Amino acid sequence: MKNVLIPFTIVAFLTFSCDIASFDDDINKNPNAPSEASAPQLIANAMLSLPSLSSSPQGQYNAQFLAKTDYVNDSQYPEGGTSFYWLYQGPLINLQAAIDHSNVDNRIAVARILKAYYYWHLTDRWGDIPYSEALRGTKNFTPAYDTQEAIYTSLFDSLKAASAQINPSGGLSNDIMYDGDMNKWIRFSNTVRLLMALRLSEVDPQRAESEFNDALNDGIMESNDDNFVFRHLPEANNQNYWYGQIVEPPVREWWALSENLVGMMKPVDDPRLPVYGDATASGDYVGLPFGTDEDEVPSLDELSLLGDAIHAQDAPVYLVTYAQVLFARAEAAERDWIAENAGENYRRAIEQSLLQWTGSTDGFDEFYAHPEISYDAGNAMEQIASQRYIHLFMHGYEGWAEYRRTGYPDHMVSPNGREVPLRQSYASEEALNNTENYNEAVQRQFGEGNNTLYGRLWWDVE
Question: Among 375, 406, 409, which Cα is nearest to 265's?
Answer without folding.
Answer: 409
